Amino acid sequence: MKNSKIIFFGGKVLYFLVLAVFIFLLVPFTRNSFFGQGHRWFLMLLLSFSISFTVTPWLRYLAKKVNILDYPDNRKVHHQATPLLGGIAIYIAFVSSIFINNIYTKPLLGILIGGTIVFLISAIDDIIEIPAGPKLLAQFLATSIIIGSGIVLDLFPKTPLGDAGNVFLTLLWVIGITNSFNFFDGMDGLASGLGIITAFFIGIISFQTDQPFLGWIAISVMGSCIGFFPYNFRLNKPATIFMGDSGSNFLGFTLASLAIFGEWADNNPIVSMATPLLIFWVFVFDMTHITLTRIVSGKVTNFKEWINYVGKDHLHHRLEFLLKSKKQSVLFIFFLCACMGISAIVLRYARTVDAVLLVIQAVIIVILVTILEARAKKQANKD
After folding, report:
1. What is the DSSP-derived secondary structure letter of residue 71?
2. pLDDT of residue 170
3. Among 32, 33, 154, 328, who pairs with 323 as Cys (CB 3.0-4.6 Å)?
4. Which has the closest alpha carbon to 282: 224, 201, 354, 203?
């Protein structure tokens, strides 16, 4: 009982310290000091973190008050009703840090508008379940907005057919990563931790390639997730709040958009494509794996069945079966994602052959993981 009181008191002290930091950062002199010393990135990190950290407990309280809870069932891994609405804290923190720092461009405005559409439809879905069709339509609309703002893949030549191919791949990438990110919101801390890691590597490579504006945006996403993470991932206790679809879909959409927004290599489309591919490799792998296995096994036979299918066959579920631990599964995925991100950093001065070899290495790594999964499943069936 005494230890519980100490922990509670320590948590309150930390909360008010972070709140004091946030108030201090709102002072114009403080912000101008960061700007003058070239540390805007640190200001945006502190702002987004402090907002997310201080707002999350209030949203947890609200979710409990109005009964917006995620209840356990046979397709979920948690065992007690848990407040939702955590994604609202992440959204507020990210958007506020952008507005407070007064950084705007047409592409960023497209990301904010598109992300808001995805956030709103997902927030409604957290409260009143919405069919997959309307949610997919909202994601299509949001992606069309960023395409209209100039954020589009540039893999094919500037011809009518090439432009159509670029638009199609942009839609496929953004909508695919958005939903894959949502799929990973299945264990405590997993989606928010992946948000931190993914945004971190986008930010690092942005600064490496002299794209500070893109780095600032990525850092804001990272800080928003860091502020939420302590409430969502606790080593010996269950999460106190979930981000819900509003958080996971918003993060997936925003980070996928940033990957296209960036210029990752000069005059080398292979390196430019390999960089975000490696950063998002875990998401690409999981989406590809579940799609192929569901089709081959006959669980889905058409697109409508695919978007409506809900199962426990994602990477974190398969790793839990292998490792017999949710926490270890989450940490394994974190390290796997970080490993791929480090590979992406190496691409800064890479040749085409280097990019190809690193992608081949990524393929080999996930093949090894798949072999281990299959071995564990086969052994379990024998037992």
Report:
1. -
2. 95
3. 328
4. 201
What averages of pLDDT result for each successive group of 10 residues across the chain (383 residues)? 47 87 86 75 93 96 90 69 92 94 88 96 91 92 95 87 92 95 91 97 93 93 96 89 94 96 81 91 92 85 75 85 89 95 87 90 91 77 61
Residue 359 token pair: 């992608």
Report the largest interatomic distance among the alpha carbons of the chain, rounded to a whole angstrom.
71
Which pair of tokens denotes residue 374? Answer: 């299959």
What amino acid occupies position 98?
I
103: amino acid identity, one letter:
I
Strand, coil or helix: 83: strand
Can you read off the two tokens belonging to residue 314? 């994602």
User: pTM above 0.90?
Assistant: yes
Phi-psi region of 298 (alpha: psi -120 to 50; beta: other; left: phi over 0): left
Asked if residue 106 lies in contact with residue 149, where contact means CB atoms within 8 angstroms, the answer is yes
**Phi, psi at residue 69, to the nearest 5°?**
-125, 155
Question: Which residue spans within the chain are E strands per DSSP?
Answer: 69-70, 82-83
Whether the Cβ atoms of residue 145 and residue 208 lie closer than 8 Å to each other: no
